[in-house]
Write a sequence for this structure.
């Protein structure tokens, strides 16, 4: 393997939200303990060195020495790189004029909500789901309409009867899809996406698909984008290199809007946004030369996930988890331990000194007793985290 994903890189003192924001984590109420010994596994942020083509591309920008304004349009080499990636990795042909630059997926989601809905409108999502979706909807004075995912033995599916019933409400104007789904790890099948798209089109809901994790898949799983399934006049897709290539700090993304009318509405709201020269270079480097790095990363992540699942089965009775089809996230169910959410939290965050994210962040009503963990770190770090956690649950093991 060319890339060494076991390499431990010290990120303390690098203004890292993951490693240097302990005081913020305490202020947010995530944990009471965050120190130099904390293992922070709460953020979908890799601890791996970026692919060399990305580093090389940005070094060329540095050597050029001029960092002026960039063009606000996704054209030329940048657009070609985006098209090449999605065509070759996912079989999706994207017209170059459909690509709109963005300042990260959450920012583009906010702009889409402003462009296509009005205050008081309902926006449907499927909990448990990434917490900032709820925050953005409520901050923009829209109404969260939840269609709870249905779960059987850890496997989640959409409740299409419930979705269809709620979609009939004329005040519900948008469906926000997480694909692959964070935190439950589902990669939606084509038939699932097709039924969802049909419901949205029939009832006048704009389908907005956040596909930021679309490249992080298990080796036996393929991804279908909503952009290939939904009507162009009723579907937009949000994506980025950030999760795939560990470039979240570059604040770059793309919105794929094939319909000219929808695109005009979005651009009216967003204005002439231009990526930084570094974001442009990184995207081109990633999407033209990043395949080898990603393929090796996916192999490494599969091995890490399999190790974790085996460890949980042997050492954490009462904890259940389903092997995710996509993402590098595990959605762990601790309810079988018989402990209260407060006791679970204390044992993991304070005694084991491992920082995760509590289930309530993803599902305020039904998330208690769940924990989300992000695994894109060197395997020795992940192994140490689970050994610490298991040590704090030894009494549970001894009673089963």
């Amino acid at each position: 393997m060319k890339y060494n994903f076991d390499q431990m890189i010290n990120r303390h003192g690098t203004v890292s939200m993951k490693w240097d924001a302990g005081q913020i984590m305490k202020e947010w109420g995530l944990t009471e303990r965050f120190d130099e010994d904390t293992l922070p596994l709460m953020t979908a942020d890799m601890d791996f060195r970026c692919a060399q083509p990305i580093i090389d591309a940005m070094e060329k920008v540095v050597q050029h020495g001029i960092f002026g304004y960039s063009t606000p349009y996704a054209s030329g080499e940048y657009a070609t790189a985006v098209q090449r990636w999605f065509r070759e990795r996912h079989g999706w042909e994207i017209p170059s004029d459909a690509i709109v630059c963005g300042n990260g997926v959450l920012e583009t989601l906010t702009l889409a909500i402003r462009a296509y809905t009005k205050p008081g409108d309902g926006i449907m999502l499927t909990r448990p789901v990434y917490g900032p979706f709820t925050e953005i909807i409520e901050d923009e004075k829209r109404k969260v309409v939840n269609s709870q995912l249905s779960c059987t033995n850890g496997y989640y599916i959409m409740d299409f009867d419930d979705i269809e019933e709620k979609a009939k409400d004329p005040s519900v104007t948008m469906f926000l899809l997480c694909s692959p789904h964070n935190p439950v790890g589902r990669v939606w099948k084509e038939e699932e996406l097709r039924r969802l798209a049909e419901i949205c089109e029939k009832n006048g809901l704009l389908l907005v698909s956040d596909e930021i994790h679309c490249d992080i898949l298990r080796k036996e799983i393929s991804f279908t984008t909503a952009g290939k399934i939904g009507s162009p006049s009723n579907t937009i897709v949000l994506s980025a290199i950030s999760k795939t290539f560990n470039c979240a700090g570059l604040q770059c993304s793309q919105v794929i809007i094939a319909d000219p009318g929808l695109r005009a509405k979005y651009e009216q709201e967003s204005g002439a946004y231009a990526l930084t020269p570094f974001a442009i270079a990184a995207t081109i480097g990633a999407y033209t030369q990043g395949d080898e790095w990603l393929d090796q990363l996916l192999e490494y992540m599969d091995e890490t996930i399999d190790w974790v699942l085996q460890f949980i089965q042997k050492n954490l009775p009462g904890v259940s988890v389903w092997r995710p089809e996509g993402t590098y996230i595990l959605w762990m169910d601790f309810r079988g331990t018989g402990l209260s959410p407060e006791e679970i939290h204390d044992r993991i965050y304070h005694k084991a000194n491992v920082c995760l994210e509590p289930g309530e962040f993803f599902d305020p009503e039904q998330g208690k007793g769940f924990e989300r963990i992000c695994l894109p770190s060197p395997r020795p770090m992940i192994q140490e985290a689970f050994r610490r956690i298991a040590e704090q649950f030894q009494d549970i093991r001894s009673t089963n």
